[in-house]
Automatic annotation (TrEMBL):
<feature type="DNA-binding region" description="OmpR/PhoB-type">
    <location>
        <begin position="179"/>
        <end position="276"/>
    </location>
</feature>
<dbReference type="GO" id="GO:0000160">
    <property type="term" value="P:phosphorelay signal transduction system"/>
</dbReference>
<keyword id="KW-0812">Transmembrane</keyword>
<keyword id="KW-1133">Transmembrane helix</keyword>
<keyword id="KW-0238">DNA-binding</keyword>
<dbReference type="InterPro" id="IPR036388">
    <property type="entry name" value="WH-like_DNA-bd_sf"/>
</dbReference>
<feature type="domain" description="OmpR/PhoB-type">
    <location>
        <begin position="179"/>
        <end position="276"/>
    </location>
</feature>
<dbReference type="Pfam" id="PF00486">
    <property type="entry name" value="Trans_reg_C"/>
</dbReference>
<feature type="transmembrane region" description="Helical">
    <location>
        <begin position="147"/>
        <end position="166"/>
    </location>
</feature>
<protein>
    <submittedName>
        <fullName>Winged helix-turn-helix transcriptional regulator</fullName>
    </submittedName>
</protein>
<dbReference type="GO" id="GO:0003677">
    <property type="term" value="F:DNA binding"/>
</dbReference>
<keyword id="KW-0472">Membrane</keyword>
<dbReference type="GO" id="GO:0006355">
    <property type="term" value="P:regulation of DNA-templated transcription"/>
</dbReference>
<dbReference type="InterPro" id="IPR001867">
    <property type="entry name" value="OmpR/PhoB-type_DNA-bd"/>
</dbReference>
<dbReference type="InterPro" id="IPR016032">
    <property type="entry name" value="Sig_transdc_resp-reg_C-effctor"/>
</dbReference>
């Protein structure tokens, strides 16, 4: 509940700032929010996310302290923020070890899901001091308006103060995904590999896409309510917005479109049904 409140207030700040600033601030705040999410996943809500540095269409984010990250979670966090902030869906991400200058993880995302390049999703990265670099090739900077620093401080410091006023709940570990592959018409999905196969074609699903597909599969050919899908996939994170579920459903549909017998049907006003 506390984490949801934290993200809700950050989201409000994010929305207000975007209305007052130009495209550069829009992207900078979104990238910084990615940093907050990454540290929150690591259990760090106190250390600072440094101001975003910008070099044309490249945005650079540094962190105060070392941390570890799970590539699958990292990909999800960045994609969710891009959707929420309505940024360009074409972007290239690199995590760089500050000590060695080595690119320890990188991926590329395109609006065409078949063109995504997202390697090594299952390999956790060790604790180190990293910097996040994300490039938006379609970014075009515009003139921006000034935003009061005192109001920015309220929205940044306020959520942290509120969060620290309440004890944090111990995170409940998610139930592990099944190691067995599931069959959906001509498709085969392997949760352990996060891989969807159709004949000789293979696509990687992000963590959220995989969780959503498995939840629909649990009640295949039956309607699953929207609130049940949100709870199962996003839980108490509080980092989704109204259309996030619809966006992820749309992406799953694109990845399943080769087999017309497999459909995700919208049950108006209720939820979705996976038909196979």
């Amino acid at each position: 509940m506390q984490l949801r409140l934290f993200h809700t207030i950050l989201g409000l700040f994010f929305s207000i700032l975007l209305s007052a600033k130009g495209e550069a601030a829009h992207y900078q705040v979104a990238v910084r929010q990615m940093g907050h999410h990454i540290l929150s996943d690591f259990g760090d809500i106190n250390s600072r996310v440094m101001p975003v540095e910008q070099e044309g269409d490249l945005f650079i984010l540094k962190f105060e302290k070392p941390f570890s990250f799970e590539p699958l979670r990292l990909v999800d966090r960045i994609e969710e923020t891009v959707i929420q902030a309505k940024l360009s869906e074409y972007y290239q991400v690199a995590l760089i070890n500050e000590a060695t200058g080595e690119v320890v993880y990188s991926f590329e995302h395109s609006p065409d899901s078949l063109s995504n390049i997202i390697p090594c999703l299952g390999r956790d990265q060790p604790t180190a001091k990293y910097r996040l670099q994300i490039r938006f090739p379609d970014f075009q900077e515009e003139e921006s308006a000034e935003f009061p620093l005192w109001l920015m401080a309220i929205f940044i410091v306020g959520p942290i103060v509120l969060l620290l006023m309440y004890p944090r709940k111990k995170n409940i570990e998610a139930e592990p995904l099944s190691e067995d592959s599931i069959q959906l018409g001509a498709y085969t999905y392997s949760p352990t590999k996060a891989q969807l196969s159709f004949k000789d074609q293979k696509q990687e699903l992000t963590g959220k896409e995989g969780e959503l597909l498995l939840r629909l599969y649990q009640d295949i050919n039956q309607t699953v309510k929207r609130e049940d899908l949100l709870e199962a996939v996003w839980g108490d994170e509080g980092d989704y917005v109204g259309r996030t579920l619809d966006v992820f459903i749309s992406r799953l549909r694109k990845k399943l479109e080769e087999d017309p017998s497999v459909k995700i049907v919208n049950i108006r006003g209720v939820g979705y049904k996976l038909i196979s």
